[in-house]
Design brief:
With about 150 residues, the chain is an all-alpha fold. It has a domain of about 50 residues. The protein contains 4 helices and no strands. Helix 1 crosses helix 4 and helix 2 packs antiparallel against helix 3. The longest helix has about 40 residues. It is flat and about 55 Å long. It starts with a helix and ends with a helix.
Length: about 150
């Protein structure tokens, strides 16, 4: 009985520790992204004060929208055990849902740009979009590099 309690305690500790590391990793990436975007956009303190609350809300919504469709598709495939087992009707439903989700993402982007063009110039908005793409590429490159090095 004592061994079982010890085992369960250690297991619980490991699970909590691993999940905390996952959150810390996401927070670290978010902090790196904010620093990178701030540097690339060269925001004044006034611009930054108004920009970041709007950007953070927009980024959160974009993430939620992308995650919701990904989860829906993943769950449907998981439920059927294989993508080839999904019926044509279910595939049509998922495609329709994806298109609707893409429309919401687009509308969210339009609303975001409409809001921030009152704060920063169109040139900085373009710089933001380029910086976001660049950050994503650098992050993926670093991830791939780390993955290759861990195999050696």
């Amino acid at each position: 009985m004592k061994k079982l309690i010890t085992f369960l305690t250690i297991t619980l500790f490991c699970v909590v520790s691993i999940s905390a590391q996952g959150r810390k990793g996401k927070e670290k990436i978010k902090a790196l992204k904010i620093a990178y975007l701030t540097e690339q956009l060269n925001l004044t303190s006034t611009e930054a004060e108004k920009f970041w609350p709007i950007y953070n809300a927009y980024d959160k919504k974009q993430h939620a929208l992308r995650n919701s469709i990904r989860t829906e598709i993943k769950n449907s495939i998981k439920e059927k055990e294989d993508i080839n087992s999904i019926s044509e009707k279910e595939a049509e439903r998922l495609i329709s849902l994806k298109l609707s989700n893409d429309k919401q993402i687009y509308e969210s982007q339009q609303k975001f740009i409409s809001s921030i063009k009152k704060i920063i110039s169109h040139k900085k908005i373009l710089q933001l979009q380029i910086a976001e793409m660049s950050f994503g590429r650098k992050l993926m490159s670093k991830y791939r590099h780390k993955k290759v090095n861990s195999k050696n």
